[in-house]
TrEMBL record:
Organism whose genome encodes this protein: Marinobacter persicus
EC number of this enzyme: 1.13.11.2
Names of the cofactor(s): Fe(2+)
Subunit field text: Homotetramer.
Name this polypeptide is given: Metapyrocatechase
Amino acid sequence: MKKGVMRPGHVQIRVLDMKEAVEHYTDLVGLIETDRDDQGRVYLKAWTEVDKFSVVLRETDQPGCDFMGFKVLDEDTLVSLTQGLKDFGLEVEEIPAEELKGCGRRVRFTVASGHAFELYADKEYTGKWGVTEVNPEAWPRGLSGMKATRFDHALFYGPNLPEVLDVFTNVLGFHLAEQVMDPDGNRIAQFLTASMKEHDIAFIHSDEPGQLHHTSYYLETWDDVLRAADLISMTDTSIDIGPTRHGLTHGKTIYFFDPSGNRCEVFCGGDYTYPDHKPVTWTADELGKAIFYHDRVLNERFLTVLT
């Protein structure tokens, strides 16, 4: 097993109206705009993130996710993992440095669920926003909205979960932290991590490929999640469900929609995992409790609204 993926690095989200989207992700979620490019894309980051950006917004006529990128340890790791992807049988596309402003060369590939992912080793280091690296204060003044601390993970819907698990675990070195199994022994949901976090990426089975369920942003406390709920009501933002707790991962969460219909999550808490931990397993008959631990039932919107 090859190692070297450090963390989720960025996600490019398709939006229908850039002005509305920027207001949503900055004024409400609390991300910080760091740049724009000649394609019209807008670059954002959360205040604790040390690289230039983690979220890229691209205006188009259909919402969803173009790709998600992971930062790897160094250039040698990027070369090694690229060869591993090719040996696995995946087509690899080389994206030149600076195609995303401030980011080094990227290697893009599409997995069997129909989702595009990238690996890269270099991105402009800007440090945490609003605090110094020597004798830093606890947090910066001037943060907006929910004051998200980082882009944390994304959840995708698509087919062929065993093949996706294979490439993420056996090529990229991720660890299966949690799963949902149906009565026939088929894995219908898988939560994968490259770190101690309960998940850096997750997949749920769907016959239709390439769908985004949500992007997720980390908050520090349950009080912050409750405050996020207040802000959602204050701004008449479309809400999905919450505040509540997950059974899967045990994170405390709330879901809502950006103006283009892309689902967002902010959450706090959650379990930790190490590579020697066995996967936590939920059974499909308890899926309601696994997703919404308090209500113990799923709402139709959560299962069917995808971009």
